[in-house]
């Protein structure tokens, strides 16, 4: 079984701020740091640090994408399917982080929006039925990727983030694993009522396994009649930028290594808790050895 992550690659410019900039306001930041990021890159590194071999497909600018390729290679992620664009810049994000560790993010797609059918076909040719495909919503041509992956029998994992109208245009019936939060689940279900979202989504897509993150209330999982839940851990919140990506990578990475769903939820919860206690995206993601040896205390 192989794991392919067809996803975004961004350069993250992270600004420490007293509060998020308001309409019409000009404000000086307290600091600026540059990190490797993008939901795709973060999830590939989380998968790799969880202990599995992962292939990353995507695109970067030829002039400014080397740092992203290098950090993936450093983390033992295969980059054979990453294109280098001559005339398009690498995608980037402008991230404000306030004193409580919360963030707001402005994305520029850049090379992430240059996926061609030829690139997709050439990439998927190296994978077969039963292999995992992990997707987010920061690249273009998602429908074509999902259609071709479904034809080949790949197990499709979708993290519908950032959530927008494009998600609702996708063949969501092909998804085998939904990795999403309450807002994303409510939008997909077409409701403003956040009660019973797990069951609503399961009724809408009965063939899918659902992992629903609930913020301070932890996470819920549903696979047919099996329903599991897990709480969060006590940590100082420094930066939440890659928490969800870390959770996704460790959950899918744990399943790929044969862990049962309940243990995969626990490992992913610990990993994401460690991530929010650190600054940055890629730099905050822990390794499986650290996660397994963690002594974090669960919230009561």
Descriptive overview:
By secondary structure, this protein is of the alpha/beta class. It has one domain (3-8, 39-89, 116-293): UDP-N-acetylmuramoyl-L-alanine:D-glutamate ligase (3-Layer(aba) Sandwich), CATH 3.40.1190. Helices cover 32% and strands 25% of the residues. It contains 10 helices and 13 strands. The protein has a 9-stranded mixed β-sheet, with helices on both faces. Helix 3 packs parallel to helix 4 and helix 8 (243-256) runs antiparallel to helix 9. The longest helix has 16 residues, at 261-276. It is globular, with a radius of gyration of 18 Å. The protein starts with a strand and ends in a 7-residue tail after the last helix.
Span of the ends, CA to CA: 38 Å
Low-pLDDT stretches: none
From the alpha-carbon coordinates, what is the Rg to the nearest angstrom?
18 Å
Specify the structural class: alpha/beta
Helix percent band: 25-40%
SS elements, strand count? 13
CATH topology, by name, is: UDP-N-acetylmuramoyl-L-alanine:D-glutamate ligase
Number of helices: 10
The top-level CATH class is: Alpha Beta
| Fourth CATH level, the homologous superfamily | Ribokinase
Largest sheet at a glance? 9 strands, mixed
CATH architectural label = 3-Layer(aba) Sandwich
| Neighbour order of strands in the largest sheet | 5-4-1-8-9-10-11-12-13
Order of helices and strands: EEEHEHEEEHEHEHEHHEEEHHH
Average predicted local confidence, pLDDT: 95
**Portion in beta strands:** 15-25%
From the spread of the alpha carbons, the general shape counts as: globular
Q: Count the domains.
A: 1
